[in-house]
Amino acid sequence: MTVLKTSMRNFFAHKGRMALSAIAVLLSVAFVCGTLVFTDTMNTTFDKLFAATSSDVTVSAKGASNSGETTSGNGRPPVMPATVLGEVRRAQGVRSAEGTVFSTSVTVVDAGKNNLSPKSGAPTIVGSWNGNDARTMKISSGAAPEGPDQIMVDADTAKKHHLKLGDEIGVISAVGTHRAKVSGIADFTVTNPGAAIFYVDTATAQEILVGHTGVYTNVNVTADQGVSDAQLKKNVVAELGGAYKVQTAKETADANQKDVESFLSVMKYAMLGFAGIAFLVGIFLIINTFSMLVAQRTREIGLMRAIGSSRGQVNRSVLAEALLLGVFGSVLGVGAGVGIAVGLMKLMGSMGMHLSTDDLTVAWTTPVVGLTLGVVVTVLSAYLPARRAGKVSPMAALRDAGAPADAKAGRIRTVAGLVLTAAGGCGLYLAANAGKAAQGSLWLGAGVVLTLIGFVVIGPLLASGLVRALGAVVLRIFGPVGRMAERNALRNPRRTGATGAALMIGLALVACLSVVGSSMVASATDQLDKTVGTDFIIQSDNGQLVTPQAVKAVKSTPGLERVTEYKWTRADFTTPDGKTLKDTAITAADPTYATDLRTKTVAGKLADAYRPDSMSVHEKFAKDHRIHLGSRIAVAFKDGSRAELTVRAITSDDVVIDKGAMYTSISTLARYVPADKMPLDQLVFATAEDGQQTPAYKALKSALHDYPQYTVRDQTDYKQALKDQIGQLLNMIYGLLALAIIVAILGVVNTLALSVVERTREIGLMRAIGLSRRQLRRMIRLESVVIALFGALVGLGLGMGWGATAQKLLALQGLKVLEIPWGTITAVFIGSAFVGLLAALIPAFRAGRMNVLNAIATE
């Protein structure tokens, strides 16, 4: 009880000094809890949606996926004959059954040819209005569609794009473009996670999505009262046989939820990873805080020991303070986490994914995880300072000698740090020289972890050397004030090392990712320059296939020398060694693709692969299956017949673009796949006539005006798009790393604030002998700057080493150009100096306000 009282008295006596540590705990816990609440809420939203939209039993074509995805290679949804509806209705236990048609392989535009598809990645769905959808949609204005000239739109899409009754809408599918006018607007009765949904009548849906009537994509079946979904499914299967896919409502909902969870899991664990980094950085802040508080209470600890307190009691007293700090920060963090989750929901709403706070889900495990993490991390971080406090002898403490300096422990720490760093360096060396990416990745991971730990352990040694070097460059120009700032930073290398290490971690990751991202862009750009021999690339940015109408528009564009189509399909391969490879990818292109992409070959010429009944294979495939020029491979095309293709070329694996592709011609594919099953183009290449690049570029954009889902890019545009994509990813990662950097800044602020308190008497004496307030503030600001620059220098150097090693592994995949983004590195280094200035504002201001006489009288 005495220990607890003492701990609580000390905690509340130093609550101002604990505040920044508490904020660090709060931020880290809040990020963890916010991530858990947000992903749980997303799961709840989709659970409700899928449960509400799934009929008791759903019958669909064999080609449809378990989650009902309708995208297929030919741009049309997998269908089944309308006669299935009558068969289903004859099954025992069926109360009602309704045939529907829908597709996600569509683009919907308004009268101005503006794309109405969501930008959030949610699907655009066009389908027939049916009773199942009527359960989750309520017509708020107008009426349901009747006839080919009417279409109904969901209220969220109508509001976003200012659609009203009577507006014209165009539906672009593989069949063609169909125009209709808005006849009605329907509100969701469940949360809409961002999809754009358009309804037409059944006959129109069949015509515009499939190309003919008499087919359905799904049959929605409702059970009689007292008949379970499982029994109904069994009855329907007995009636239909095994020709179709039959699922219960739970199976359909689970399949849809599985697709969503795969995306949410990646996002969830990525965000938790960044929260873990913030926790790691927070550890240094807490260690520094308690180390300095213990040092400042040396005399008090000595008195406690002198009147009979044991080492264990002193130790427990410090740990109890840490426990109070952990509980306080974690409780606030859990509450803040809910706020972060709501903020993320609002952010997703601005991107088009509507999430209702009515579905906000706070599982009991979330606060438990947050509190446990916050408390455990805080107490463990305070263990070393607590142990050090217990070692203070009463006599030494009463003489104000402070905690005993353990030179032996310092030497052991230095040796251990150097060993860890050397081991990490060996790991990075082995990774850089690995022959296989998988093996190299393991060495890279080990090298990163060991060098990071090693640098943290030898932080005091690094601080002693680098602070002097930085002081000579940065601080000496400020004269005596600069030299005092340097000595203050060097006074306690362990503290400086720990403070700098917190900033080092975040900046090391920033530098590493910057090097990797820049190298990827530079390598891809280099490959484009070396291998791409076409002027323009036409493709959809959201993965939609290129419709025949759009291809026709490209081919009719004036000023083009050639147009190359590029398709992709799957087939079963039977190789000369007798092995059968199921569902293997094969690319079909026009013969001109051999000119558009100058792919290296190790045998034969790629142009020969486009001869009738011919193909190419890549180098590794040829080695694995003992294939050479003239070998014949049996190819059973998906949705087509079996062919015997002759290998005319073997391509090199030392490429980036189309690495591992196997080619045949579109004409060969057309011989074995029926016209109505032929896959649509993944993308289209176009080459202008000599001197016509600029006019042809403009003409292509004009020709595709009616098809806004496709983008025309020349090589410059394509390189910029690649750079922008990687840049957006890096910016998102930098944004998440900002949490760790903020915690590191709090560490610098806390270190300086406690250091000012620790040096109160010294500051008073300096003021007494003539140091002005302005000089005092400058000294503290310069001390902060040099600590921040120390952390930045170590972190950026370490990160560039990691990034350069990672690029060596990327080189095994053909990305051979190493590029150091010196602009970014320099900007981050300079920015660190401003971070140091910012962190010093409050400590410097407080130091300048000290009363000189009171400061001198401080013990």
Automatic annotation (TrEMBL):
It comes from the Bacteria. The chain crosses the membrane at residues 269-295, 318-342, 362-384, 415-432, 452-478, 499-522, 732-757, 782-802, 822-845. It is found in: Cell membrane. Residues 60-74 have a biased composition (Polar residues). Residues 19-236, 499-698 form the MacB-like periplasmic core domain. Residues 60-79 are annotated as: Disordered. Keywords: Cell membrane, Membrane, Transmembrane, Transmembrane helix. InterPro entries: ABC3_permease_C, MacB_PCD, Macrolide_Exporter_MacB. The keyword Transmembrane applies. It is a multi-pass membrane protein. Residues 274-394, 736-851 form the ABC3 transporter permease C-terminal domain. Its main location: membrane. Pfam families: FtsX, MacB_PCD. Belongs to the ABC-4 integral membrane protein family. This is ABC transporter permease. The lineage of its organism: Bacteria, Bacillati, Actinomycetota, Actinomycetes, Kitasatosporales.
